[in-house]
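User: Please fill in residues for this 342-position structure.
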């Protein structure tokens, strides 16, 4: 459940196909925020949502436009996904002890954990209300709510595995695969599932769209694991937050399975990952990053991101319709998501 894809990006750096949808998405978010004035909630909601992101609703609006779905339906679906996303981010920041996001203090740091949890609860309630309020065939609405709830549950289950396998000496690439497919794969595809159902797509076509997400979502997450080694994630310039949190990243999974990792360095790596975040110093992080580079874990992760993106690109033309522009734009979107530097 990462959020660095548009951090620091101006509309000029976005793919052409996302520029106008991003402006519309931000307008939808601003309108929603203007209607939420409950005392004790409004400031926290503004803090969480006024971050200049809106990537997920922009993806929904772009995709829905290409499928000929009514604009208000695309916007509502995109808004719901963005609200779910931000609720997850609030929970993640508390669970991970992250103090910075989008270049500023996280909500729990700014306003306290009780307020942050309450804001997240409000976002979840509004997300489901927004999906249910879409003016479409009742059977389609049932399918949309079901997709939304299943993705919600799957993401939470993925987060549970993420927490379970932190600093685990038996962590493997297979376990990493399981985590990111649950935490990120379905989560990214959800942005496109709503418009596809609203456009009347068959279950077979929707299943293929999920499969594309199962490739592109993990590629997005792998890139995020790599970006954690730099200052580009909007965390106040802090490098190696995943290392400080002991997160089960692709870098950790790869390093632990390398024969070149002797017992002494293996134990030191595990000790750093298991150490409380506040006790993990800059030298510890620098040593782990150096180890990842020496073992080829960073290069391996780079290749994995590319392979998964290519797999998504190969699946995409199999979707219904024969609009070549849609294929070209998807390739631009995929490149933006996975090749980013921030």
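Assistant: Residues filled in for all 342 positions:
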């Amino acid at each position: 459940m990462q959020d660095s894809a548009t951090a620091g990006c101006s509309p000029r750096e976005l793919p052409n196909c996302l520029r106008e949808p991003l402006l519309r998405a931000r307008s939808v978010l601003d309108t929603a925020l203007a209607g939420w004035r409950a005392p004790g909630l409004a400031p926290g909601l503004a803090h969480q949502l006024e971050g200049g992101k809106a990537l997920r609703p922009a993806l929904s609006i772009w995709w829905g436009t290409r499928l000929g779905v009514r604009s208000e339906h695309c916007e509502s679906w995109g808004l719901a996904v963005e609200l779910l996303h931000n609720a997850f981010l609030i929970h993640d920041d508390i669970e991970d002890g992250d103090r910075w996001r989008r270049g500023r203090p996280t909500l729990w740091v700014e306003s306290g954990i009780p307020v942050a949890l309450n804001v997240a609860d409000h976002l979840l309630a509004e997300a489901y209300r927004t999906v249910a309020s879409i003016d479409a065939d009742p059977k389609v609405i049932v399918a949309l709510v079901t997709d939304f709830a299943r993705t919600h549950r799957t993401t939470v289950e993925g987060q549970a595995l993420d927490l379970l396998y932190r600093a685990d000496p038996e962590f493997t690439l297979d376990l990493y695969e399981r985590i990111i497919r649950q935490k990120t794969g379905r989560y990214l595809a959800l942005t496109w599932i709503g418009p596809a159902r609203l456009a009347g797509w068959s279950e077979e076509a929707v299943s293929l769209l999920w499969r594309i997400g199962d490739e592109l979502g993990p590629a997005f997450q792998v890139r995020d694991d790599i970006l954690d080694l730099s200052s580009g994630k909007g965390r106040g310039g802090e490098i190696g937050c995943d290392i400080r949190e002991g997160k089960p990243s692709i870098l950790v999974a790869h390093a632990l399975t390398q024969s070149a990792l002797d017992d002494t360095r293996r134990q030191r790596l595990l000790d750093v990952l298991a150490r409380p975040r506040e006790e993990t110093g800059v030298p510890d992080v620098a040593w782990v990053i150096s180890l990842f580079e020496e073992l080829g874990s960073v290069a391996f992760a780079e290749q994995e991101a590319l392979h998964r993106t290519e797999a998504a690109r190969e699946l995409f033309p199999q979707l219904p319709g024969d609009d070549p522009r849609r294929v070209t734009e998807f390739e631009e979107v995929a490149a933006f998501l996975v090749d980013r530097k921030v």
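For context: The domain at 11-338 is CATH 1.10.600.10 (Farnesyl Diphosphate Synthase).
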